[in-house]
Structures are given as structure tokens and as C-alpha cells.
Amino acid sequence: MTVCYLDADDEITDAVARLRTTSDRHFILVLPAGSRVATSRINFRLLAREGQERKVVVGMVSGESGVRSLAISAGMPAYATVEEAEPALAQRAEGQAEEQAGHAASPDSPPYGDEPPPFASAGPAGASARDTGPEATRIVPRSGASVGVVRGRAETRAAVPMGRGHDTEPRADRWDR
User: Fold this and answer.
1) Which of 57, 80, 104, 141 is paired with 98 by a 20 to 30 Å CA distance?
2) Residue (of 63, 101, 77) closest to 28 by Cα position
């Protein structure tokens, strides 16, 4: 398992170059506080993709929870410490090897992996059973742009005007009942 410590001023190209030079199948990238690599979700996506292409399990370690969250949103496992990352990545690699062996054994299984688990609820966390049916949440566009979420009974929700500039200023909200 390779553990790579980056400096705060190292760029994404430095991280990818180090990933490319590893001969191990496990790679842990340790980012210091204020790292330039941690400024963009795209950087983590690039690292995750490079790891997939090289069949290397890549994980990220950072003491900053925001950086870990950004990495996870990009599809890269993230941990607070190296001690936490090492066993987790080893277990993840074993699971991937077993999954690939299972797909090789059954020719009728899809090449892209198992079906994702069904969602317990389509509503927000903590939503109750009364939030289904005609009171479901939906996104309502405003003049061609997303305005957010509208809640309420479907029969009593306001209609959204079509297009902009209904003889008023272009950004005016007009709701007809």
C-alpha cells in the first residue's frame, strides 16, 4: 500500500503523476490543510478515474471534513486518518476482487455491476408517510430557470406562468391560481 503525502502547494498533476508511478494496488493520498488539490471536485474525479483505469484502489485522507465531503461527492473514498484508511481500502479492494470474480463466473450478469439498492423513501430525510401521494414535493421552474422546491397539496398549488416578460419586468414572479 502506497501512502503519498502532498504539500499544500502541489497541483493535481503532481498527485496524478505519483499515482501513475505506483506499483501497488492501494494508493492513499494525504492532503494537508489548504491543499490546492482540494479546491475542486473535478480534481477528485480525475484521481478516481485514473485509479480505475490503472486498477488501483485510491483513497484520500484529510483532516478537513469539507475536503472529505468533496472527495466523497466525486466518488472517492475519504478518511480522517491513514490508520482509518488502510484497513478500509484493503477491505474495499477485496470486495471489488470478489465482485469481479462473481461476474466472471456468471456470463448472464451485467458487466456494469449489481443493481443499486432501492431507496427507502423518495422524500427528504425524516419524511413521514403523509409526504407521499398528492402532497409530494416537486420542483417548479420560474421563467425557464429552477426556483426551488414547492410543497403542498397538488390540487392547490399555484400554476407557473409560461416564459418571461408577461407585460412586466422579465424577472417578476406572477402566480395565477
Assistant:
1) 80
2) 77
Taken in order of first residue, the domains within the chain and their CATH numbers are: 2-105 (3.30.750), 130-160 (no CATH)
What does the block give as the cell for 94? 477485496
> Residues 27, 56: contact at Cβ < 8 Å?
yes
Element (H, E) at 143: none
Which of 63, 50, 81, 69 lies closest to 8, judged by CA? 63
Give 3-state DSSP helix, strand, coil % of the chain, rounded to 5. Answer: 40, 20, 45
- 41-53 vs 12-21: helix axis angle to the nearest 10? 20
Q: How high is the pLDDT of residue 147?
A: 44
Of 177, 175, 121, 124, nearest to 151 by C-alpha is: 124
Short-list 15, 11, 63, CA closest to 39: 11
Q: Return the higher-pLDDT residue of 59 and 154.
A: 59
Identify whether the C-beta of residue 88 lies closer than 8 Å to the C-beta of residue 79.
yes
Its pTM stands at 0.52
